[in-house]
Amino acid sequence: MMKKITLLFIFALSVMSAQEVTHVDFDSNNPDIVFNSWNTSSTFAKVANPASDATNASAFVGQFTSGDNNDIGVGVIDPTTVFTSPFNLVSNSVFKMKIFSTKEIDVTFHLENAPDWGNNIEVTSSVGAADVNKWVELSFDFSDDASNIYMNNIVIKIGGANTMQGDIFFF
What's the pTM? Predict the structure, then answer.
């Protein structure tokens, strides 16, 4: 009995110690953050939320406009001034992102080291047919790479078979 109580206590403690961190919300957490495409293909803008609802009631969101090559995506400009220390993937390995899309898409959440962009890890999640035309929350689990302690930049890549140049998505 005592063994079960101890295990339950350890489990409860581990659940309590896992904290959710909001890195960017365009309102109060890094409201002036700027994303840019390294190949000047895709573009970013901070805009008023075009479809505020219970899932995303933020006043402002990011707008991703697809270019002719979305493989690079849009990354944070001057990331070390925005994220002053690397992400702790041991205690917070899951990143969540709200996205609004009018079509089925793949979203890749790419973490990298600035200035060594060659050191990177990424996870892809999808917006399916049931989730178009509304805000949905996607999860990106980096627990398999939690030992990589050098990640301090975020890059967003949006693509898939349905994505065309000029498409607009919100995050």
Answer: 0.84
